Amino acid sequence: MGNTLTMKKICSNELYLVRDARRSALELNLRKLGVERLSKDDVERMQSDALEAKIGKWSKYLQITVKLLDGERKICDEVFEGISFNKDQCFSELAGTGVSVAKTLLSFGDAVAKSKRSPEKLFVLLDMYEVMHEVRSEVEVIFQDSSCSEMREAALGLMKLLAQTAHEMFVDFEELVENDTSKTNVHDGTVHPLTIRVINHVKFLFDYQLTLKLLLQEFETGSDTESQLAVVLTKIMQALQNNLDGKSNQYKDPALMSIFLANNIHYMVSSVRRSEAKHILGDDWIQRHRRIVQQHAKQYKMVAWGKAVQTLSIQVASSSGTSASSDLSSSGVSRAMIKERFKSFNMQFEELCAKQSLWTIPDQELRETLRLSIAEVLLPAYMSFVKRFGNLVENEKKPHKYLKYQPDELDQLLGEFFEGQQSVEQKK
Questions:
Q1: CA gap 283, 273 in Å, rounded
Q2: What is the pLDDT of residues 108-167, one digit of tens each?
Q3: Phi and psi at residue 316, in whole multiples of 5°?
Q4: Which 3 state secondary structure label does DSSP give 419?
């Protein structure tokens, strides 16, 4: 009986020695990491670059810590297999330092999730959520027993907090975009900086497409994650469109307003078509917004050029076989009227050239499309007017005062539209 007790005591002592040796090895490895405790205030004081660097280290440290603890858990299970010994308690004791380090790392994650929000911080949260998801299964195995339940629940709690905060930041960003009141004035009607920022934000989101789908499953496990992501993106895009509609009201010239909206919606559409977003938003979204661009282009052409084209339109009430030039009085058309129409057209065209050569359409395809649409309406009307009534002013002392432009000259000038202020200055 005494010998049995002695053997059990020796066996227990050896097991404790094993535990202490493993604990020392674990502590030594963890000390090399140099994990520091940081509060929410510390996080908020960091510049974005510094925070990203800390997150990078945090991810690496967390993965190393979990790997070390996972290794110790496996060793513990193997050593105490078949022995009447509380292996869970033993692991809990040897892993004390590791658990402490893990708690410090989790507290940092908690501080980041609870710190002041910004659009850029969403990507930080997605990075952290991705890492937590990667180590989740190992954490559940390592801390499976009741003595480690606090650690398991803390890790799962951080995952949920990161997911919840990221999800809320989608709503924050949508509201931020729709309510943006930045004073940046785009005088030439080009793409607004807000549009560029929002589209870049959406593009960056697609670097996290798989992570986003995992995150969205936290909230609607029964629905398709692509559909959920499509809803998120559609709301952001609609918020941007609503804001642009509001910003367009700054333009007193309705033609420039239409150019501004065509530019910005076209930028949205072309960016989506060239990115992964096209698979989420779908062809219907793309086609619908291309039609919106076309509507703004049509509105621009009507508002900007309607009056000039109307100037070139005269209804001649002449009898059959009688030309306008041979019977001016009976047709209701006088030489003075024709001269006035030529002068009015020249003046309107020059005013439009002066303004619209300063306006900017950065996309070559859209720029050429609008130039062509103007030419298709203006040039036939001008050529017809010159053919019908040009002879009435050709015999004037200064015919070039009225017949100021040849059709090819008009076409050439139209080709200089929408190049912007910089192009005009270069030509000077």
A1: 9
A2: 899 999 998 888 889 999 999 999 999 998 988 888 877 677 888 988 999 999 999 999
A3: -95, 120
A4: strand
